[in-house]
Write a structure and sequence with these properties.
15% helix; 5-stranded mixed β-sheet; mainly beta; 9 strands
Length: 171
């Protein structure tokens, strides 16, 4: 039995090293910064995420990147915490494409935080009454559902936003 445990541990260590080379992002994000926040090498990573359907809006997402030392010491090999924060701003002329206008909005970005069950996502919702784009970053976790989230808004009233499908009427 002890030999079996050693094999499992060795395979797990190899998978961690291999998993660190895998791309974890389902959409394009550009890393704009990374710094270590403790002596073990755990870090905070800052990514710029452009909204694929709204030109001129960029969200900056910061999330946690676990170090190999932390993974080895805790034995939680294949996941990062799903803590994240977001700030979205107008970064150029705003052109709103064919976006989802329902109350549920639509997902703009997703990034896995474990091999199977956990990811963080950014969802955009259009607030018609206030002519504002609302961006929420949240954790999706199949087990132990998480209520970790952060919100940011981009008001369009002074942005001179162009709508490719025509601006929707106020409610």
């Amino acid at each position: 039995m002890r030999g079996h445990a050693r094999i499992v541990n060795a395979l797990a260590a190899l998978m961690v090293l291999g998993a660190s080379a895998l791309p974890l992002s389902d959409a394009l994000a550009d890393r704009v910064g990374r710094f270590s926040n403790d002596w073990t090498g755990n870090g905070l990573e800052v990514e710029a995420v452009a909204d694929p359907k709204v030109q001129g809006v960029t969200c900056h997402l910061v999330d946690f990147d676990r170090s190999l030392i932390d993974r080895l010491s805790k034995g939680n090999w294949f996941e990062d915490p799903s803590n994240a924060s977001i700030a979205c701003r107008q970064t150029g002329p705003v052109v709103v494409g064919d976006i989802e206008l329902s109350q549920k909005g639509e997902e703009v970005f997703s990034e896995r935080k474990s091999l199977v069950f956990k990811s963080i996502a950014i969802r955009r919702i259009y607030d018609r009454a206030n002519d504002t784009l609302v961006y929420i970053v949240y954790s999706r976790q199949v087990t132990d559902a998480s209520a970790k989230m952060s919100i940011s808004t981009v008001p369009l009233f002074a942005a001179n936003a162009e709508w490719t499908k025509g601006k929707p009427p106020k409610p």
